[in-house]
Amino acid sequence: MNNADPWSNVTIDRLREITTWVSSVLDLDHLLELIIHTATGMMRAKASSLLLLDHKTRKLYFKVATGEKKEEVRKFEVKLGQGIAGYVALTGEPLLIPDVSKDDRWYKKISESIGFETHSIACVPMKVDDEIIGVVEIIDKEDGTAIKESDLKTLTAFADLSSLAISKAKKIQDVERENRDLRQELDSRYAIIGESPKLKKVISDAFKVANSKTSTLILGESGTGKELLARLIHNAGPRKTKAMITLNCAALPETLMESELFGYEKGAFTGAAERKTGKIELADGGTLFLDEIGEMSPGMQAKLLRVLQEGLFYRVGGNEAISVDIRIISATNRDIEEDVGSGKFREDLYYRMNVVQMRVPPLRERKEDIPLIAQHYLNLFKWERGLPELTISKSAMDRMLQYDWPGNIRELRNAVERAVVMGNDREIVPEDLPISTARSESSGMTVGLTLKEAMDRFKKEFLIENLKRTGGNRASAAKTLGIQRTYLSRLVSRYGIRDV
């Protein structure tokens, strides 16, 4: 093999070098310019072009062009099947035309329009996943010699490189678009909506603790958005580039929870065919969110405490200590202090997890946020249903504002979704909402509360009545109630009792 051969060692080395560009150069336009200019120089061509196929218009347009008329030629388009380039794009077969004047497929309009005399052309297709995406062509040799079959082989190699670059760029663009769409979807799904003073205070506190590793306990009724607050804390802090791993402590029995939390080794028990990585290990460097922490069994509480104290844990069936750096955020809708007092929850674990305590206010305490939240979910669901003009009537919004929402934001979201699905596709009216502002005549209680929510409401009203009876004297009220004054103060704070 001699140096005159286009496939000499020099050529192969040059192609290898260009292949590295495809992996390192991120600007597609710049990369294609490099490839085509290199091909033109190596084959000593007068001019070259890379044309991409627009499948919608079925036309080829000039993406890259070289030669003295490169700016003029880029103004033209070629129909699929038209001329040499159009024929190659249509058939997918390379062409070498030694004399274009003797070939019926030659489309001379472009050459004549820009005043560029053409004698011979070599043109090869570009493919991605067997689909034609364009062509690469060279026109004439600088020294006037004929374009040879070996030039066609070289040109094919450069077309393949160009196709690879375009394919890689398309994949990167697809991933970026998917990531952007996912971020927008997540931002929408995990948005904390509201402008009420109570909510703003909670969000402000969340930003304060975000930049620390401090364990945080989030209190609040079901459906208030405790996990959303946990995600805000995680995403606003230095651990946002790592994962936030969630485990619902109420969803699993103790044996399964231990496997989920700590993972297990292969053969640790029947059915453990492979090693499993647990939630704690997955959260290393990030955040572990333990929802419904008040439902965790005493045995699991002891094992979790050991992790918090030592930063070490063992997989089930393992004897090697694994070190982790995690931040714990936990949440509960239970009266956790009451559980500590009754022995249901370990006091030492409680103090480990309760370094910072935050309470998410229920929706009935921030009713000014209801229109914003309702509109947020309306926007979400109406686009899914293809109803861009759908609105909420004033009477429907009034009913929403009158309702106490015992299920909080979760219930409001479901109510709006049902109204969008079952409504008249123009305007949501009160009858579309699965809620009622009426109270039960027999009990005087709001319909739809869980037992926990009903107990909390009773406790709050009971405390208010006792404080009123003592003229707001907490010491006297605590004595009547048979509890410590400090515990009464915590209850007053928890239930947001003021001006009594």
Short description:
With 500 residues, the protein is an alpha/beta fold. The chain has 19 helices and 17 strands. A 6-stranded antiparallel β-sheet has the order 3-2-1-6-5-4, with helices on both faces.
Explained architecture:
A hairpin with a 4-residue loop joins strand 1 and strand 2. Strands 3-2-1-6-5-4 form a six-stranded antiparallel β-sheet, with helices on both faces. Strands 8-11-14-7-15 form a five-stranded parallel β-sheet. Strands 9-10 form a two-stranded antiparallel ribbon. It has helices at 9-24, 28-42, 70-73, 83-91, 109-114, 149-189, 197-210, 226-235, 254-262, 279-282, 298-310, 336-342, 347-353, 370-384, 394-402, 408-422, 451-469, 474-481, 485-494; strands spanning 45-54, 59-65, 77-79, 95-97, 121-128, 131-141, 216-219, 244-248, 263-264, 276-277, 287-291, 312-313, 322-323, 327-332, 356-359, 391-392, 427-428. It folds into four domains: 9-173, Beta-Lactamase, CATH 3.30.450; 211-359, 3-Layer(aba) Sandwich (Rossmann fold), CATH 3.40.50; 363-432, Helicase, Ruva Protein, domain 3; 451-494, Arc Repressor Mutant, subunit A (Orthogonal Bundle), CATH 1.10.10. It is α/β, with parallel strands linked by helices. It is built from 19 helices and 17 strands. The radius of gyration is 35 Å and the shape is elongated. Helix content is 46%, strand content 16%. Helix 1 (9-24) runs parallel beside helix 6, helix 2 (28-42) packs antiparallel against helix 6 (149-189) and helix 14 crosses helix 16 (408-422).
